[in-house]
Each structure stands twice: as C-alpha cells, then as structure tokens.
Amino acid sequence: MSTVVKTTIGEAKHHFGETVTIGCWLHGKRSSGKIQFLQVRDGTGFMQAVAVKNEVSETVWEAASRLTQESSLYITGVIREDTRSKIGYEMTVENVEIIQISTDYPITPKEHGVDFLMDHRHLWIRSPRQRAILVIRAQIIRAVQQFFDERGFHLVDPPILTPSSCEGTTNLFHTKYFDEDAFLTQSGQLYMEAAAMALGRVYSFGPTFRAEKSKTRRHLIEFWMIEPEMAFVDHEENLQVQEQFVAHIVQSVLENCKKELETLERDTSKLEQVKAPFPRISYDDAVKFLNDNGFEFEWGEDFGAPHETAIAQSYDKPVFITKYPTSLKAFYMKPDPERPDVVLCADLIAPEGYGEIIGGSQRIDDPALMEQRFQEHELSKEAYQWYLDLRKYGSVPHSGFGLGLERTVAWICGLDHVRETIPFPRLLYRLYP
C-alpha cells in the first residue's frame, strides 16, 4: 500500500501525475454546478484544485461545498500539468478534509479603505499582493546576507537600548533603564565603528526607531537598517561597495521573484538597468541643476522629496549625490581635505521618486577634530567616551553606510507607501495590531 505524499503548492510541480496531500486555506471558490473550482493557498503559493461531482464521493463533494473564504483544510488529489495556469499546474481533487470552517471573514474581494485594511493587517498579509511583497522582502534579506557573507564581512548585533543619540538628534524614544535614562536606537553605526576596529569589515541588520512625527509615504517609526562599516576604506571605495551591493540586491530579486513581481505588475525593465557603476552628482551640481530647472534652492539647504525626485528623473539608475555641506550632516563625517565646508559623504537616491535609500560617509579619524566636533555639537563626553577611545587607540581611515530596508522594498516592488513593506508597520498614529 503506497503512502500519499504530503507536499506544498510550491513543490507540487515535482509531483506531476502523483496523488499528494496539501495543507491549505481556501482563497476563493466558484462553481458551475457539477464542478467546483477551489482556489487554495498554503504560504508557498496559490493553486487551483478542481472537484468534479461525478468523480468524487458525496461526502467529498459536500465538504468542498461547505468551504468558505479562509477555511482551512487538507486537500488530496492528482497534480496535473495545466498550461493555462500561471504556475503551470493544478490539482484534480480526490479528497477534502476540513480543519476549520471560517465564518464572516472580514476582508472580502470588494474594495476596503486603507484604515480598515491596516486594522486587519494580521489578515491582510494573506492576500496575493501582500504575500508577494513579503516574499520579496525576504529575498532582499537573503541577498543582503549573501553579499556580505561572500565578501568577508562579519554580522555584529548592536544594542537596541542606548544611553545616547547616534546623530545628536532629539527624535528618540525615551525609556527608563532601571534608574538611568535610555533610548531606543536610531542607528547601530557608532557601535559598528567599534566592531570594525576589531573585525575589519562588519555589518549590522536590525530594527531602528525614529520618533519623528512624520506622515509621509516614505517614513516609518520602526524600520530595519543594514549598516556596514569598513576599516581602511576611503570614501571612493565606500561608494563602490554601495553600488555593487544595491545592484546585487536588485538582480537577486529579478532572478528569484519573477512570479511575485508579476503579481505586483512591476515594470521590471527599469530594475534590469540597475547595474554598477551608478552615476554621481555633487551637491554643488545638484543645486545648480535644481535652479536651472525651476526650483528656488540655496546652497546649504537640504533636499526634500521633490528635489530628490527631480534629480533622480535625469537618470535610469540610482544616483549618488556626493559631498554635502558640513553643516547639514552628522558630526562624525570626515571633511573633504581639499574643501572643509563639505564632507566626504553621499546619499544614494533611488529612481522613480523613491528618494534616499542609502546614506554613507567616510568617518572622522583624527582625534583632535573629533574632540572639536563634540564641542561644536555639545555632545556629552561622558556618554560618548567609548566612541572617542576609537580615535585614541589605533585610529584608521574607515567608512560605512546605512541602507533602509523598507524604502528599498518599496522601490523594488513599486509601492506607493512604505506601510506595505513590513509585516506590521508602526506609523505615527498606529500601534495596532
């Protein structure tokens, strides 16, 4: 007596002509009276299962008839090739074993408002579009780890609770650490600098928090950052790593997530052009470009979303904007030796209006200049003494950058808002579910 193979929708293509069992949920159903077409999903994909009335028992037919949206079941049948199907195969049903009948599932095929969907985010992520986004997010994470692992980087986990700000800003979530004040981290970078002095090339990958009261389509309160730091690497080498990194991520998604990109109706022709090297424009030239194209913009101002979008539209790849004014950037960025009013930094601007996805720089390695910056920014030496020690004991040229995962997901998926890029987004007025 042969045992029926238990498999998944994603693996069913390896079982043509075989009888298999799949644990799944009913996504949708239609019937012609004598045939029931069951659209089922199991997390690995979606598949059609066809139940023919005169080919199954009355018990199986009745069980299939009882199924409602998001009911859970084990379905058994023969996997058959079907060229009309998006996945190339379907199941001819032999048996249906109901696990639970779902009643009054709140998300129906009709249109729902954003607030309703966000209130039901725990269920919304079951939909084909949201599943596709989360699959692509997972592939991006795999590509990130692969890129750094293959290049000799070590993964280092910085603390989430910190005694001070990374960039001297006030947009921090405050908490009590027993009898001390503490903050949720806004970046792991300073700790990565310490790790780079021990391990050479490192990266962190974890959640960060910004208490900015922002409601734009590019901002989340809680988001994930990838932050590499590299000893003995200068500004130019840093840019090369960044462009190779982003190109690797995009090509990995194109190669491994074709079905998901199709589900999102993403124009992949634009992503296919994302290969290193990337174009570069200095802050000075960017200001001139904006003034020449109808923007009133003065040197020393920071770029907003309309400015970044206008600059990006001139290129078919991500573009680096380099060497910003020193006054605009964080205290730790190294001034250009030939021009101290700008720093050796760059922001990487994604195409199609998605804005900055990477910020990076060469770091100050001169102890005296770092002490000066501390005074200028009124930073607490007590809180940062460990950071000053990095310049005191074996200081070296070093560089790093931070890539925001959710903005990168939004760009690659072609989404209108970052709230769909993370399973459970934390927004200005949303802490549920």
From TrEMBL:
- The segment(s) forming the Aminoacyl-transfer RNA synthetases class-II family profile domain are 134-433
The record's listing under InterPro entries reads: Aa-tRNA-synt_II, aa-tRNA-synth_II, aa-tRNA-synth_II/BPL/LPL, Asn-tRNA-ligase, Asp/Asn-tRNA-synth_IIb, NA-bd_OB-fold, NA-bd_OB_tRNA
Question: What Enzyme Commission number does this protein have?
Answer: 6.1.1.22
Q: Which Pfam families match?
A: tRNA-synt_2, tRNA_anti-codon
Q: Which UniProt keywords apply?
A: Aminoacyl-tRNA synthetase, ATP-binding, Coiled coil, Cytoplasm, Ligase, Nucleotide-binding, Protein biosynthesis
Top EC category: ligase
Provide the leader sequence positions. none
Q: Name one GO molecular function term.
A: asparagine-tRNA ligase activity
**Coiled-coil blocks:** 247-274
Family designation: Belongs to the class-II aminoacyl-tRNA synthetase family.
Q: Quaternary arrangement and interactors, per the entry?
A: Homodimer.
Question: What NCBIfam families does the annotation carry?
Answer: asnS, PRK03932.1, PRK05159.1
Q: What is this protein called?
A: Asparagine--tRNA ligase
Protein source organism: Paenibacillus chartarius
Q: Could you read off the lineage of the organism from its UniProt record?
A: Bacteria, Bacillati, Bacillota, Bacilli, Bacillales
